Amino acid sequence: MASSMTYTLLLLTLLMVISTTFIPINGKFSEQFAETKAKSHVNNMIHLHFYFHDIVSGKHPTAVRISGPKNAFGATAMIDDPLTEGLKPGSKLVGRAQGMYALASQHDTALLMVMNFAFLEGKFNGSALSIFGRNRVFDMVREMPIVGGSGLFRLARGYALAKTVRIEQKTGDAVVEYNVFVVLA
């Protein structure tokens, strides 16, 4: 009888712990913070602006297809694209976009972007931001999440806005303007 009573008490305790663990905040799905709490991170926000040069043609491409059918669902490319301060390819190099992208949608032109912006210039030299998200390439502006980083960007979060500035229809080479907003830990 004692073991049955002990078992019942343990079960009730476990049920209480489980039920209180999954109760939403204040009985709501979300909570709005006071203005002072919501803006406290703004002091740690950094805005970066640069151009991404995706070169798929010529003798020295910076994006190379590594698997999947050409220009169709599943096509995957490995990249080591220059990031420059200005629009022209010869402008000051500030970093490299290294990683991969793949055509990840069967219904529209959307890429899965998995890349690091590895910076080579200024106070961010040696630091990197990690991007992991969806890029609907024909949208005017695309938003992708920053999921972390290294160096000065350790534990960073934020978002990147990408806007295609130029695409060569014949070669597929593209220049994309990036505005990146990063909140440091």
UniProtKB/TrEMBL annotation:
This is Dirigent protein. PANTHER family: NUCLEOPORIN-RELATED. Keywords: Apoplast, Secreted, Signal. It is found in: Secreted, Extracellular space, Apoplast. InterPro entries: Allene_oxi_cyc_Dirigent, Dirigent. Transmembrane segments: none annotated. GO terms for cellular component: apoplast. The keyword Secreted applies. Belongs to the plant dirigent protein family. One of its GO terms (biological process) is phenylpropanoid biosynthetic process. Residues 1-20 form the signal peptide. Gene3D superfamilies: Allene oxide cyclase-like. Homodimer. Dirigent proteins impart stereoselectivity on the phenoxy radical-coupling reaction, yielding optically active lignans from two molecules of coniferyl alcohol in the biosynthesis of lignans, flavonolignans, and alkaloids and thus plays a central role in plant secondary metabolism.
